[in-house]
């Protein structure tokens, strides 16, 4: 949708943020967190409560950087759309991740949004130290060449735009270069049965079941940038 809107704005002669250079933010100041700044919330309780928030599941991939023997990738729940103009997305990754430095060196990545039957694929990419791409079918995303996993209902091809610190994680912002879905929106064929999303809730995978159709008085689009209430 983001790409469609930007194309429309350009077709009518409107200037978009994508036509203007985006200045990089200054490098964040890093410092240790003092004991008196720590919130009285245990890690286990934090995970338990936040586990009630259901998310989609993605695999973030990147091509092999110079000197590396293969592509990189990891399973990621913390993916979200960020901006419509310019089209930006974001994901969070632990600062201890051994995969993130490889993605950072590549400077590009592809977000593969997983389908309901791809739980095993997600688990494979959640393991450290293994050959995550062994037996996995993929092709190259059209702009960055990042691995685009077979059967993923949707994909978003990106260049790294900015990286911010967020506690024990990093917040990665990606500039969308191309995107599409298996139903033909991105010029790629796929299995329509995988179009239902893979969901993660309280430590387990699940599927999405639509509720009874209804029309809210003030409809909004979940996870769409630029909406507010």
In what order do the strands lie side by side in the largest sheet? Answer: 3-2-6-9-10-5-4
The CATH superfamily of the domain at 2-7 and 58-198 is known as Electron Transport, Fmn-binding Protein, Chain A
Level-1 CATH class name of the domain at 2-7 and 58-198:
Mainly Beta
Distance between the termini: 21 Å
* Mean model confidence by pLDDT: 78
- Backbone CA Rg: 19 Å
Count of separate DSSP helical elements: 4
Residues in β-strands, percent: 25-35%
Largest sheet: 7 strands, antiparallel
In the CATH hierarchy, what is the architecture of the domain at 2-7 and 58-198 at level 2? Roll
State the CATH topology of the domain at 2-7 and 58-198. Pnp Oxidase, Chain A
Shape: globular
Question: How much helix is in the residues?
Answer: 10-25%
How would you classify the quaternary structure? single chain
Number of E-type strands? 12
Counting helices, strands and paired strands, the structural category is: alpha+beta
Question: Can you describe what's shown?
Answer:
- This protein is α+β, with helices and mostly antiparallel strands and 229 residues long.
- The protein has a domain of 147 residues: Pnp Oxidase, Chain A (Roll).
- The protein is 14% helix and 31% strand.
- The protein contains 4 helices and 12 strands; from the N terminus they run ααβββββαβαββββββ.
- Strands 3-2-6-9-10-5-4 form a 7-stranded antiparallel β-sheet, sandwiched between helices. It has a 3-stranded antiparallel β-sheet with strand order 1-11-12, with no helix packed on it. A two-stranded antiparallel ribbon has the order 7-8.
